[in-house]
């Protein structure tokens, strides 16, 4: 990662604004996602009942839709929340967990794409599948490299007008015309569940900030990568890595 990609200006903005981030995410990553947002200075709230989700997404600064543990009633609640956010101009972000690998969630994600997400963040297999260019990964895990999914990400961005982020060893952030590359991080980030899901929540929060959205989202990817690098250097395995990762997010920029 280039040093300037840490974008301390955007980080300062993020912390000062503390985006109220409505997360409709999967059962596995609720606490980790909330803790990542808190460590970066945002304000998470997990509101999932349809009536309340519809109410809250109009008030929150941004909405995350993550289909990792989708059910029919959750799908209905998500749809109401998205429509409510869109009606008042609030950004929403899609994390298409295991799309391609499973039918119900794939159809759901294809349907809600017409509701114009501000951004889509997934691993390579998910982005390839959502773009209609492959059959998906191994459950929630990718079987493709991010570089191999870049053309799919660019096509998906042009088709949906969303910023598309495909993550992996290298992250690519694209609007279909411009593409930013974010390097760094550590393979240990794939040994703790939810680093990608949490990144999607940070991307959602970032979408509520003013300025160039592509740049801000690339900055968010850079914060997570930098924290992953620092945490890996200080930990013995996945358990201590998760703790060190939150501490590293908290301390980001303290040296500069
Ligand atoms: N091999 C790697 N080297 C460095 N960083 C990585 C590597 N693989 C993933 N990452 C980083 O880990 C984070 C999660 O990306 P990943 O593509 O694994 O998401 P994901 O599969 O959706 O994760 P999850 O479903 O567990 O939330 C990103 O910040 C990404 O940059
Ligand atoms: C492991 C897992 N299963 C459903 S969602 C999820 C979190 C990673 O995406
Ligand atoms: Mg994922």
TrEMBL record:
Residues annotated to bind ATP: 121, 167
User: Listed GO molecular functions?
Assistant: hydroxyethylthiazole kinase activity
UniProt EC number? 2.7.1.50
The positions annotated for binding substrate are: 46, 194
The annotated pathway is: Cofactor biosynthesis; thiamine diphosphate biosynthesis; 4-methyl-5-(2-phosphoethyl)-thiazole from 5-(2-hydroxyethyl)-4-methylthiazole: step 1/1
Query: InterPro entries given for it?
Result: Hyethyz_kinase (IPR000417), Ribokinase-like (IPR029056)
What is catalyzed by this enzyme?
A: 5-(2-hydroxyethyl)-4-methylthiazole + ATP = 4-methyl-5-(2-phosphooxyethyl)-thiazole + ADP + H(+)
- What CDD domains would the database entry show? THZ_kinase
Query: Under which main EC class is this enzyme filed?
Result: transferase
Instruction: Print the keywords alphabetically.
Output: ATP-binding, Kinase, Magnesium, Metal-binding, Nucleotide-binding, Thiamine biosynthesis, Transferase
Cofactor(s) it depends on: Mg(2+)
Q: What does this protein do?
A: Catalyzes the phosphorylation of the hydroxyl group of 4-methyl-5-beta-hydroxyethylthiazole (THZ).
NCBIfam families per the record? PRK09355.1, thiM
The family note in this entry says: Belongs to the Thz kinase family.
- This chain's protein is named Hydroxyethylthiazole kinase
Q: What is the lineage of its organism?
A: Bacteria, Pseudomonadati, Pseudomonadota, Gammaproteobacteria, Enterobacterales
């Amino acid at each position: 990662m280039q040093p300037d990609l840490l974008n301390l200006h955007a980080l300062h903005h993020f912390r000062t604004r503390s985006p109220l981030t409505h997360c409709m995410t999967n059962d596995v990553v609720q606490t980790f996602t909330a803790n990542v947002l808190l460590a970066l200075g945002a304000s998470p709230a997990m509101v999932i009942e349809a009536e309340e989700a519809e109410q809250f997404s109009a008030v929150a600064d941004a909405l995350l839709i993550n289909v990792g543990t989708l059910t029919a009633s959750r799908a209905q609640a998500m749809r109401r929340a998205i429509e409510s956010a869109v009606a008042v101009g609030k950004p929403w972000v899609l994390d298409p967990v295991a799309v391609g690998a499973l039918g119900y969630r794939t159809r759901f994600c294809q349907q809600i794409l017409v509701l114009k997400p501000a951004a889509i963040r997934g691993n390579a297999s998910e982005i390839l599948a959502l773009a209609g260019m492959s059959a998906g990964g191994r459950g929630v895990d990718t079987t493709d490299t991010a570089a191999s999914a870049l053309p799919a990400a660019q096509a998906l961005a042009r088709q949906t007008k969303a910023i598309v982020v495909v993550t992996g060893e290298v992250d690519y952030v694209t609007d279909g015309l411009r593409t930013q590359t974010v390097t760094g991080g550590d393979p240990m980030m794939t040994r703790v569940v939810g680093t990608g899901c949490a990144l999607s929540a940070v991307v959602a929060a970032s979408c509520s900030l003013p300025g160039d959205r592509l740049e801000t989202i690339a900055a968010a990817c850079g914060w997570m990568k930098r924290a992953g690098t620092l945490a890996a250097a200080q930990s013995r395995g996945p358990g201590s890595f998760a703790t060190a990762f939150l501490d590293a997010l908290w301390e980001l920029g303290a040296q500069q």
